[in-house]
Amino acid sequence: MLKKYIFKPGIDREGTSYSEEGGWYDADKIRFRSGLPEKIGGWQKNTTNTFIGTCRNMHSWRDQAQTDYLGLGTHLKLYVKEGADFNDITPIRATTSAGDVTFSASNGDATITVTDSSHGAVQNDFVTFSGAATLGGNITATVLNQEYQIATIVDTNSYTIEAKDTDGDEVTANSSDSGNGGSSVVGAYQINVGIINYVSSTGWGAGLWGAGTWGAVTAITDTNQLRLWSSDNFGDDLISCVRLGGIYYWDESSGTGTRAIPFTSLGSASNPPTKALQIMVSDVDRHIICFGSNPIGSSDLDPLLVRWSDQESAIDWTPTSTNTAGGQKLSSGSTIIGAIRTRQEILIWTDVGMQSMRFAGAPFIFTFNEITEGPSLISPNAAVNADNRVFFMDRGGFYMYTGTVQALNCDVQDYIYSDINLGQAYKVFGSSNVDKNEIIWFYCSESSDEIDRYVIYNYLENVWSIGTNTDSFTRTAWIEAPALQFPLGAGKTSGSDENYLYDQERGDDADGSAMTAYIESADFDLEPDGDRFMFLSRIIPDLKFKNSDSDDTVTITVKGTDYPLTTATTLTTSDVTPSYTQAFIRARSRQTILRFESSGLGYGWRLGATRIDMRSDGRK
To answer: How far is CA 558 from the centre of its chain?
Structure first.
């Protein structure tokens, strides 16, 4: 007899494989659309240019001249992308006086020791030298007068760099390199770099090696914590904030060759904040808002203080009777985790719940109201605004806000939270794929310090899917914006530190390579209650291929087991092509698992019903 199988949409891992009979239990690179599973879209490099550092924040905007920009924050740099070019706009934190910097080289060695009293640098910081003279041999003025990344910190007054030519190739000093660079050397230090991992302690091992005394208790700062940026555009210009650190302004009219500067360096700035956790521009009233900030007259960050500038102003932060600048300390919690702009309000998550911030006009400017206690954010980037709703992930579940907070019924919740690295929770980020009605969260599994898993929620069909974020699909940030043709992901190529941007949902392949995608059913009885063995003789699949050639293939694997606690074994495999009609097989089992998998180039597929021809084969 022929029996048709159409499984329930979505991945369900809340029970055992056998208890989820009639559904799907495992998948990778699969989404659900109109109740049916299909291979996700592919990705292609957005540009062949690379950038430095791990990106965890992007912001897209278009200026009044219709020029598209992308702000990009990594743990090492801040960029503005225009066209295919990544323009380094990393702020300068300090510039020395002429002659403060000197060099010393050793014959036969590329390592140069740089002396600069109280340099304030940490390992991997970037510094650009100018005005240097040759050391007398291979270490010429051209070699010295360029940007360097600091190799090691010797002490508070010296560090080392590795000499290179303008092509980046190593240059070794010779016996003639006995000079010190002359009396005109100037060093321009970019802001201290961050680190790529979150650390919860402040003692040994908590910060950058060489940044403090061994065993000393170190305050959590922007230099010893996971580097997270927040960015927004203020008109044509970009404002950016290092979490726990400085706030910076990039003036678009000055061009991509200029760097961002601290708010305190803006002309006529009045009490601008110097530190913040997050920065944002309100939509209608156009205030610049800092979430977690230093109060006026203090350099210490208050993690519950919300401050905002005068309306339409980046420079006036002093509240007066004639402007709308102001501030409000939240009444509950110990720190702000994150905030997101929604329709006519801003949602703020603290470590104990959620609050709403709404523009009210004079005299209060903004009002604050508690929405709920309990649900919070697992990370500053774990909330997503889509379809006039806000979806967010906390440390124990998933939620939706539509004026009130509702817990989402997540069919993979136990699967996710039983294998998540909460020590790297601040790396979790969410984004949307509106064309597919999806929210996607990326996270670290328990055995990984970097993102290697994702979960997809289709909010129109209320179904979930899961997958891995490995190989060529390593993503550390994702953005979908009206100015972008495709959703944009940031990540590294497999086995390297080369960082690229990728157009997501473009084509069917993994940047020109084959993408492996599969979906696997839960255990199901071939005969009601699994009382009898069944003999399987034929499979008739229902597959729709996309952009396919005649030899494109989806492999159907039939696995079998006699009891729920025994390991399923492969009974038979069949390769399905677009011209395929049926496969004759020989298999015998009580329970069965069906797996559909592809690893070819240039095509997608969608799965409908599957029919299996079988007959009873006895009880033993």
So the answer is: 37
Write down the residue that tokens 């029996």 correspond to.
Answer: 3
CB 609 within 8 A of CB 6: yes
Token pair in block for residue 552: 């494109």
Write the single-letter amino acid at 331: S
Residue found by looking up tokens 């278009």 in the block: 62
Rounded distance between C-alpha atoms, residue 201 and residue 212, angstroms: 14
Look up residue 352 and give its DSSP letter: T
The answer to whether 38 and 31 have CB atoms below 8 angstroms apart is yes
Residue 567, judged by CB atoms within 10 A of its CB (0-12, 13-18, 19+), counts as exposed
Q: Where are the domains of the chain?
A: 2-40+516-616, 93-190
Q: Tokens representing 313?
A: 């102003």
Rounded mean pLDDT, 19-28:
93
Q: Tell me what the pLDDT averaged over the chain comes to.
A: 92
The pair of three-digit structure tokens given for residue 516, joined into one six-digit string: 């492996």
155-182 burial string, b = 16+ CB within 10 Å, else e?
eeebbbbebbeeeeeebbbbeebebbbb
Burial, 183: exposed, middle or buried (Cβ in 10 Å; 0-12, 13-18, 19+)?
exposed
Fold of 2-40+516-616: Jelly Rolls (2.60.120)
Neighbouring residues of 481: CB distance < 8 A, sequence distance ≥ 6: 60, 61, 488
Q: Which of 266, 223, 270 is nearest to 245 (CA)?
A: 223
Give residue for tokens 């497999």: 494
pLDDT of residue 209 exceeding 90, the answer is no
Closest to 360 (Cα-Cα) out of 417, 288, 287: 287
Give the Å distances, CA to CA, from 269 to 258, 260, 274, 281, 309. Answer: 20, 15, 11, 17, 11
Span 477-531, pLDDT tens digits: 999 988 889 999 999 876 677 899 999 999 999 999 999 999 999 999 887 776 7
Distances (CA, A) of 296 to 146, 272, 308, 312, 499: 38, 8, 12, 20, 39
**CATH number for region 93-190:** 2.40.30.20
Q: What is the CA radius of gyration of the chain?
A: 28
In this structure, what token pair is assigned to residue 250? 């990039």
**Phi, psi values for residue 136, rounded to 5°:** 115, -15
pLDDT of residue 206: 41
CB atoms within 10 A of CB 435: 11
CA-CA distance, 609 to 278, in Å (whole number)? Answer: 49
Give the per-residue pLDDT at 205.
Answer: 39
| DSSP secondary structure letter of residue 510 | B
> What sign has the CA pseudo-torsion 464, 469, 471, 474?
positive
